[in-house]
UniProtKB/TrEMBL annotation:
Example of a GO cellular component annotation carried by this entry: cytoplasm
Homology family: Belongs to the ribulose-phosphate 3-epimerase family.
Stored Pfam families: Ribul_P_3_epim (PF00834)
Gene3D superfamilies cross-referenced by the UniProt entry: Aldolase class I
Gene: rpe
Binding site for a divalent metal cation: H33, D35, H67, D176
UniProt entry keywords in alphabetical sequence: Carbohydrate metabolism, Cobalt, Isomerase, Manganese, Metal-binding, Zinc
Reactions catalysed according to its record: D-ribulose 5-phosphate = D-xylulose 5-phosphate
Record's protein name: Ribulose-phosphate 3-epimerase
TM region positions: none
Gene Ontology molecular function terms on file: D-ribulose-phosphate 3-epimerase activity; metal ion binding
Residues involved in substrate binding: S9, H67, G143, F144, G145, G146, D176, G177, G178, G198, S199
Cross-referenced InterPro entries: Aldolase_TIM, Ribul_P_3_epim, Ribul_P_3_epim-like, RibuloseP-bd_barrel
Pathway: Carbohydrate degradation
Amino acid sequence: RGRPLLAPSLLAADPLCMAASIDRLGGEADALHVDVMDGRYVPNISYGPGLVRALRDRYAEAVLDVHLMVDEPERGIEAFAAAGADYLTVHVEATRHLHRLLGHIRELGCRPGVTLNPGTPVEWLRPVVHLVDLVLVMSVNPGFGGQTFLPEVLSKVRTLCQWRAVDGLSFLIEMDGGLGPANGADVVRTGCDILVAGSSVFGAADPLLALRDLRRTAQG
Ligand code: DX5
Ligand code: ZN
């Protein structure tokens, strides 16, 4: 479908009607973004491997983009890999052994991703970019949907693009938080390959129209 790829965040879908919400996207989402929260790393609790397994069972072909907002993610990755996650993204702030963890995620058969909070310098990722398939740049403080986009994180995307070119790497750059038709084009122009969108898609009266609208505007 071309760039950008769009990953609706299920956090904004009605938890009692998850499948119905996904089906309303008509198969036009490039990935499903699954926000896992443990009530420790972030002040909110969402869901765990059980939801990933249920999604995998029902949507065999879907790309499941699992964003782990949990402390010590090394304790949980095996369960998420077994449940059928494709991308497994961990926070640089949440583990003491990031390098080892990213290698372990790949050994488990998943695509490793790494992410960082708005207040964390992008330089923290410099030693591990060659190990990942995805770098997620948080554009809100993690924990909740429906927050306002923080434009100051865009400079991190520029830095990541430079590193990627200099090192000849091919990781994808994803942005998450406060994205919609009003800022999608800017974010893509800066260099993002994947946009996560929660409330701007599932909060709309017609999520499929909202997804198409975001695609149209973000393609510029
Ligand atoms: C925030 C989550 C996001 C969130 C995005 O902690 O990581 O994925 O669901 O929601 P919106 O698009 O509503 O900001
Ligand atoms: Zn997320």
